[in-house]
Amino acid sequence: MISTDYNIREWINKAVFMVTVFLLATAARGEWLLMIVYLFKDQLIGTSLTKTSSFENKTTEVTSESFLERWQLQNLHLMLTWSIVVSFIMFWGIGGVFQYYFYYKRRNQAADWKCQPDKFLTPENEKHEFLLGSANMLLGATVSGFIACYIVNGGYTTLYYNVSDRGWLYTLASIPAFYMYIDCLAYYFHRLTHTKWLYINIHKVHHRYHQPTAFSTVAMHPAEFLLHQSYLIIVPFYFPIHAAVYIPTILYVYYYGMMDHSGINMSAIWPWQPPSIFHDNHHKYFHVNFGFNSYMFDWLHDTLRTDDRVYGEDIFGGKGQQLLSTKKSS
């Protein structure tokens, strides 16, 4: 009985932890409102969020019709306010609790949970990741607020909700196709930013966090942040995809993106998903382990970290250099 109670509590704790990370991950990119709009699109269209009061219609008729209504952005100010304010509350609130629980309350037990238990970010870098991450979250929340407003006002998307619209074969095939689409672009765009010029001028901003935390997830150059968000955001506008495929996949990718940067040593649920230390090692060794949601592209291009090679910030290419002892023996 005691064992059963313990298992139940353990599962509840894990479930609460996962939900918390999901919320933090969507807040970090400012996309919580967009996910809700995608989930309840039909119910939200035609609600008070999309209607302008009669007083506003009379006093701002020209402005409304000439701009906001033309672009299907009625009540944009409300959507932006909700998107930004709640994103900040969740990002700072949940992120703060997350940091407190692991990096302050359990700092002395780091060997039990941390990927790099003997190393922590400097106070300067902690402040930097928090401020830069908050700035990018504001950027993401603003973009998402515009898109959410457009959709709620009847804007066109290729997202569909009935399997019969495309059939079971198409819908099921789109699950691995969308997953690999994300992993493929994430790998190649990420590796592109590790070419010398782009790394020094753009991506190095993100790599100042050698021991990343949850706030490091979106602490990067704003141009890079927009690049990675863009290939996720455009999908429901160009490719027919079921909501039950798009939303869970995005949330899954965001969840692991957050955990990969959390510094918490966590094993993967699925055999193709690297554990969190895989990306933590990317921050530690720099130009290696470029993938996020599978080993596939690192394996194809021989950019997996190996113990017989040396890596460093000034060793570009993704393959490191052979150790001297290995060279001599060969």
Automatic annotation (TrEMBL):
InterPro entries: Fatty_acid_hydroxylase, Sterol_Desaturase_Related. Pfam families: FA_hydroxylase. Its main location: membrane. GO terms for molecular function: delta7-sterol 5(6)-desaturase activity; iron ion binding. The chain crosses the membrane at residues 15-40, 80-103, 130-156, 168-189, 231-256. Its EC number is 1.14.19.20. Keywords: Membrane, Oxidoreductase, Transmembrane, Transmembrane helix. This is SC5DL. The lineage of its organism: Eukaryota, Metazoa, Spiralia, Lophotrochozoa, Mollusca.
